[in-house]
Amino acid sequence: MIAILTDKPNVGKEIARILGANKKENGYMTGGGYMVTWTFGNMISLAMPKDYGIGHLKREDFPLAPMPFKLTVKHVKADTGWIPDINAMQQLKVIEKVFDACDTIVAATDACREGEMLFRYLYRYLNCNKPCYRLWISSLTDEAVLKGMENLRPDHLFDRMFLAADSRNKADWLLGQNASYAICHATGLGNNSLGRVQTPVLAAISSRYRERENHIATDTFPVFVSLCKENVLLKMRCTEEFTDRQRAAQLYGDCKLAGHARITAISKQVKEIEPPTLYDLTELQKDANKYYGMTAGQSLDIAQRLYEKKLISYPRTSSRFLSEDVYDTLPSVMEKILDWKELRPYVKTMGINAFNLPRKVIDADRVTEHHAIIITNMYPEGLENMEMQLYLMIIGRMLEAFMPPCRVEYTTVDAICAARKFQCSTYRIIEKGWFNIFEREGVIAGHDCRPVSLPELSEGEMLAIAGCNLVHKKDLPISAYTDAELIEYMDTAGLGTVATRTNILQTLIDRKYIRYSGRYIIPTRKGLYMYETVRGMKITHAALTSGWEAQLARMEQGKLSQEEFLGGVLKLAGEITEEIFRKYKR
Q1: What's the pLDDT at 530?
Q2: What CA–CA distance (Å, rounded) separates 581 from 531?
Q3: What is the DSSP string of 5-72?
């Protein structure tokens, strides 16, 4: 008998159906020589300081460094404090029963660092020593699951991947628990949580909020003239910024009196804008927020549902490219896209040859644990509105990736009126190419660049002024972060991974440090208080642990030991706690 463990009930039941394990039991499915069971996400975690018998802490107890680390069942908050999750405990008994009844264990948790760590922690917690194998798949189609089961790999081949995940988890514990306990001990205030990712993110949200609060608006008075030729209006702005209304009004009057402007320069440039690469999770979340207002959590949940419905490949990926073997499967997928009647408005005039697709999407060196997000050859049925929006985004991006560049002519026109320089920028699409899919103007338009087809202009030409405008503007404060901006900030700063960023934001929300205000993310009073408490300290700096991912990658390559990595982390934890105690001497 073979036991299969997944990290979600839906995934477990789907794999069971594919393998013929159709008999439903309490917490697992059985049949065809298989027993398929599941966890409810992460049910095992590193133990908290109290689980090591650490009672009242003294200054000299820091930094906390439990060696070896212990594992414990997931805890939930109750009226009486934190207690073990009863659902997790019951399911653990089911999993233990399934493991005991089988000769071989198959890890079918998410095929990534976090999924491997989830399996290994549970395997160790149950003291299991039976041989185990890894199911590594990138989609849940019947074909992918059956092929994966035919090519199971010994789980020890993923020891280094687990070591990297385990090291990062322990490093997060060392920094987070030490900083949190130290701030509580030093200030005398409880219920405070700090972390090496969540605190820099909170600091970024809070500092932008403070900047917005403290903004002092500056008045400016831009002057515009509209030139006319062949019934085309050319709106031009004075290149000089006026903060004095009287000077701006004088120029406005002079332009009206002048009646004409002289063209002094015309600059044209044709650019070929290459199609965007395929989606990874970060880019998908950013675009879903930008175009449909989905939060990072919503888009990830929807992508996960589409994955479980076998409609897309594994969504928690940081790659935007495909490997050669995945590319070879695309003709049948693209042929279905081009044939679906619902999608014909997107592809009617695209001229894509499904059997001769460009190879620019292939880059094996840039395919990490999983390839870019693509659809499968399953037909979408019964999708909710937001699910269909995300699904069509992924299809649209696939179509864009295989289309020719978009050719755009950008034109800058300079003119002199009333002895002052005026300028305007326009663009004209020559060949739409990939732009024809969604036609989102903001993707190709530059700042203050308008879509205008200009008449023929020449240097020295005099054009009549059709109108003048004097505008009173106040510069706006910087806006609070949207999900798209915050995800991009975290990605650029190296905070978290594609698999963890959404959970980090949700943790800050659950701890009441941040909240949504419309489409914007702002700090709560509690979050601002915590930000002010630790502002300027090392724990708030995004760059503090930005080199970790490179070190963990070296660990996966066998070039760095866990002991060496955690030794450096413990030293850093000591520096952080020392800084906290130094600032808040009692």
Answers
A1: 94
A2: 17
A3: EESSHHHHHHHHHHHT--EEETTEEEETTEEEEE-SS--EEEPPGGGGT--S--GGGPSP--SS--EE
Q: Say if residue 194's pLDDT is above 80.
A: yes
> What is the predicted pLDDT for the residue at 333?
86
Q: Please name the amino acid found at residue 574.
A: G
Residue type for position 347: V
Cβ atoms within 10 Å, residue 559: 9
Q: How far apart are the first and last CA of the chain?
A: 62
Helix (H) or strand (E) holding 337: helix 330-339
Helices within 245-295 (DSSP H only):
245-258, 281-292
pLDDT at 349 over 60: no
Q: For 6-37, write each residue's pLDDT tens digit.
A: 999 999 999 999 999 999 999 999 999 999 99
Structure token digits, residue 401: 């990736």
Q: State the Cα–Cα distance between residues 511 and 77, nearest whole angstrom.
A: 12
C-alpha 219/C-alpha 384 separation (Å) is 47
Decide if 277 contacts 321 (C-beta within 8 A).
yes
pLDDT > 70: percent of the chain: 98
**DSSP conformation class of 463:** E
Q: Is the pLDDT of residue 352 over 90?
A: no
pTM equals 0.91
Q: Parallel, antiparallel, or unpaired: how do β-strands 132-134 and 153-154 relate?
A: antiparallel
Q: Tens digit of pLDDT for each residue in 57-110? A: 888 889 999 989 999 999 887 777 788 999 999 999 999 999 999 999 999 999
260, 230, 238, 264: which is closest to 458 by C-alpha?
Answer: 264
pLDDT band at 482 (very low <50, low <70, confident <90, very high): very high
How far apart are the C-alpha atoms of 262 and 422, rounded to whole Å?
10
| Side-chain half-sphere exposure of 391, counting CA atoms within 13 A | 25
DSSP-assigned states of every residue in 532-572:
HHHTTSGGG-GGGGTTHHHHHHHHHTTSS-HHHHHHHHHHH
The burial class, CB within 10 Å (0-12 / 13-18 / 19+), for 8 is middle
What is the token pair recorded at 562?
Answer: 């866990």
Residue of 345 and 409 predicted with greater confidence = 409
Tokens 């659902």 found at: 87
- In this structure, what DSSP letter does residue 513 have? S
Q: Return the bridge partners of 236, or none.
A: 225
Cis peptide before 63 (omega within 30 of 0): yes
Task: Say how far apart CA 70 and CA 277 lie, in whole Å.
Answer: 43
Q: What is the tens place of the pLDDT at every residue in 498-522?
A: 989 999 999 999 999 999 999 999 9
383-391: list long-range contacts, CB under 8 Å, 24+ apart: 386/292, 386/294, 386/298, 386/302, 387/302, 387/305, 387/306, 389/288, 389/292, 389/294, 390/284, 390/288, 390/292, 390/294, 390/299, 390/302, 390/303, 390/306, 391/306, 391/311, 391/312
DSSP assignments along 379-433, one per residue = PP-S--HHHHHHHHHHHHHHHHHTSPPEEEEEEEEEEEETTEEEEEEEEEEEE-G
What DSSP state is assigned to residue 278?
Answer: P
